[in-house]
Amino acid sequence: MISKDVKLAATFLKNDGVVGIPTETVYGLAGNAYSDIAINKIFEVKKRPNSNPLILHVKNGNELDKIGTQIPELAYKLAEAFWPGPLTLIVKKQPHISNLITASQDTVAVRVPNHTLTLELLNSIYFPLVAPSANPFTRISPIEAPHVEAYFKDQINMVLDGGRCSEGVESTIVGFENNRAIVYRLGAISIEEIEKITNNVSVYKPLDKKIITPGMLKKHYSPNTDIILTRNVSQEIEWFSDKKIGLLLFNAPQPNFNLAYQKILSPDSNLKIATSNLYKALHELDAMNLDLIIAERFPEYGLGLTINDRLTRATKK
Ligand code: TXA
Ligand code: MG
To answer: Which atom in ligand 1 lies closest to the alpha carbon of residue 29?
Structure first.
């Protein structure tokens, strides 16, 4: 059921239910962070391995001290700069945060989402919400309420309809080591923006065997349709000329190719707009019964890095 009724959503959540919630990044599959029943339901519905920890969503920055401990000064600085907003911080957890949420790690992920309805919801309940993105494990994240409904139908209590997500891609995840910021997942806030707050930023490179975040999994954010990522779209079109192809492009259409099968993410070459259109375009291309999606590689800076990250993962089988 899709509804705009915040009170109804709160009632379901108070009773161990699972509710699709809008955020500025993507829709989340939310439950009471203090209800093991709700947390287990989320893992079950999403078919997510229990080894993958969840993000806590809280109503404001003051909650950080109630959840984390030994919080570095830099974490407060980043929270101050970006909350409410698409930044997730990884901090040492307090003992009362369930091991189900953190996959038994001693750290917890937390953010303040920037969406009016969800902030209203968080202010009307007395607990934080755990919410992974509201897609089945490895599938494309939902950015509109009907996407969530299509994925989970009667398996969840309701979807709180907050319209289309403005950022359209997941939050940037930042952890800390010796008061240095480490980006664990590229996301809606670019590295350059974080560097305005601290110039001590590095991007985490997962060691092959020790994957601590599923956002780091090679196969993730995938359409059902095969997808390739390339700098030379026209060459790939020629190469796969026997196939039914759809194109995902940055700013300009491919000449001599049916426009109905082309998604242009930003005609004005604006990376923020391109990012906000990425998953919508992937959902649409995936519904076209294509043999193949050919995606153009984006510029290697700013949110172009986030887009390339998601497209690269989408190509993995
Ligand atoms: O934008 C977002 O972050 C969305 C919306 C709904 O808030 N949520 C989201 O959640 O993308 P999810 O579960 O799909 O991705 C959360 C990521 C995972 O890659 C998870 O492994 C990582 O956060 N994570 C959670 N706790 C962690 C921890 N303690 N250490 C490292 N990574 C952690
Ligand atoms: Mg996810």
So the answer is: 6
Ligand in closest contact with the CA of 140: 2
Q: How far is the CA of 299 from the centre of ligand 2 (A)?
A: 24
Rounded to 10 deg, the angle between the 6-14 and 116-124 helix axes is 50
Residue range 59-70, pLDDT digits in tens: 999 999 999 999
pTM tops 0.85, yes or no: yes
Q: What angle do CA 177, 39, 104 make, to 5 degrees?
A: 35
Token code pair at residue 86: 């698409």
Residue 62 half-sphere exposure toward CB, CA atoms < 13 A: 2
Whether the CB-CB separation of 269 and 251 falls below 8 Å is answered with yes
Residues 188-239 have pLDDT tens digits of: 999 999 999 998 899 987 654 444 555 555 666 678 899 999 999 999 999 9
